[in-house]
Design brief:
- By secondary structure, this protein is of the alpha/beta class.
- It contains 9 helices and 8 strands.
- The chain has a domain at 86-284: 3-Layer(aba) Sandwich (Rossmann fold).
- The chain has helices at residues 2-32, 57-66, 97-106, 122-140, 151-162, 184-201, 217-222, 270-283, 285-307, and strands at residues 41-46, 82-86, 109-112, 144-149, 167-173, 179-182, 232-237, 255-259.
- The strands form 2 sheets. The protein has a 6-stranded parallel β-sheet, with helices on both faces. The chain has a two-stranded parallel ribbon with strand order 1-6.
- Helix 4 packs across helix 5 (151-162).
- The protein starts with a helix and ends with a helix.
- 41% of the residues are buried.
- The model is unreliable at 290-308 (pLDDT under 50).
Length: 308
Amino acid sequence: MRDVWRIGLGAAGVASAIIAAQEWMARRYYASTLGPREFVDQDARAAWTAVWHELWAPLELATLHASSVYRGHGVAQGAGDPVVLVPGFLLRGRYLWPMQRWLLRLGYRAEIARIGVNADCIDVMTDRLLRVVAGVSEEANGPVHLVGHSLGGLLARAVATRAREQVASVAVLGSPFRGLRMHPVVRAAAGVVQVVIRARRGVTVRSRCLTLACDCLSVRALHQPAPADMPQLAVVTRHDGLTDWRYCMDPSTTTVVGVSGSHVGLVWSPAAYRALADHLRRASPRLDAAHGDRNRLTAARRSMWNER
């Protein structure tokens, strides 16, 4: 029994040391570096964030299911607008099921973009998302709201610029659209994906593929703010364990909401859900049309009353 206790205490000590080291490195990184100085910083650099924060994600999911926000209490309801959810780097859309179910309960026509695993060059993934958005927009006979997590947010913003008439609004959660400042683990994974892409397509792959220095159409679209008349939301967390949160927002053009939690847990954050509900409500063209119809009806009734 003593051996078990010793092993347990030793493991706890090692874990505590790793956590302390990561927190020290994160504080030093943020104290010694500045945020983005221009709209998009093309260089991909390491962000020594405290990656252990991502261990909070299962707890955040449990907290979401226990929250009144997830049950739709006191949250702005939808009017049937189509919403497309875009998964993050190296992920499919299954982890977005809780958000999809929640949006359906609020009255939205929510679906997860069927673009496969998000592990290809930005231009290829954006083209896939463009086809999804075009189909949903045609079926709904109106523009689509895009909600992207992490790299999915970059794809959503690229589509918003390239197909303005098909997009009603764009919301991003933990998306470093102003510069790929990522933890070294994520950078290493991106390097592996680059190797796979080049092995698959050969010389057709651009030299700076999967970076914001690439000259492809979609990355060029990211180098400018989304259209000024498009409602935009960016949800960020200072405890992001995978990206530098300062590169995930642009307060001059985007409504920014800060929440607590991890990078992965942003898609399960009750505070993020409330901010998203308010954003979608404000950005709804259907609600604008309904308000316009009610205002015209009220004006007509007043005119009729005055004539009497």
